[in-house]
Amino acid sequence: MEKNSQTIYGDYKLKFMTGIEYQRFVNKWSFGIKYEHGFNKIEEYPTDCYDCFYGTGNMREDNIYLTTNYSIFKLFNSRLKLNTGVSLYYSNLNFSGDYQGGLSGGGTRENSTYNTFGAAPSLSILYYPIERLFISLNSNLRYGWSKELDANSNQDRKVNEFVITAPELKIGVNF
């Protein structure tokens, strides 16, 4: 689930992302790099206004993170961990779609690309059912400085990005 400022209304939407992550562990600290990719359809049908735009948009997203995490505590013989962390990230996102509605009824076309740099504090719970396999629930708040290119008007502007991810499910293997 993610709330993303690049969609028209910025509501929580279920998204599917794939990725790969490498982490190096040193005592209670871990350092790593992560890449994520997603292509999702975002349906936006607001029910609280009569002159809003509505329809389905397409979101293509690529994210790269440099991560640092710290294990606050471990329970049950180190099978359950609570981690906190912060990441620096770069995101390249394209959001496009043809929307109907609006005050005039003529609709609108959205086609914007965002290049963003920012920081993302996070909190996660990791469970190790066996020694090397882990299941993780992670939440983070990404805030960044973005340059938006609107392909319809061929103009760019600087905007702030916010993304709230809660929860993100990860399944992985420690090597």
Ranges where pLDDT stays below 50 over 5 or more residues in a row are none
Backbone CA Rg: 19 Å
Q: Please give the order of strands in the largest beta sheet.
A: 2-1-9-8-7-6-5-4-3
Query: What class, by secondary structure content?
Result: mainly beta
Q: Give the ordered list of helices and strands.
A: EEEEEEEEE
Q: With helices defined by DSSP (H or I, 4 residues minimum), what is the helix count?
A: 0
What does the model show?
The chain has 175 residues and is mostly beta strands. The chain contains no helices and nine strands. Strands 2-1-9-8-7-6-5-4-3 form a nine-stranded antiparallel β-sheet, with no helix packed on it. The chain is elongated and about 65 Å long. The model has no long low-confidence stretch (mean pLDDT 87).
Chain-wise SSE layout:
Layout: E1 2-4, E2 12-13, E3 18-26, E4 29-44, E5 53-75, E6 80-101, E7 108-127, E8 133-150, E9 155-173
Antiparallel strand pairs: 1-2, 1-9, 3-4, 4-5, 5-6, 6-7, 7-8, 8-9
What key attributes describe this structure?
mainly beta, 9 strands, elongated, single chain, nine-stranded antiparallel beta sheet, 75% strand, Porin, 175 residues
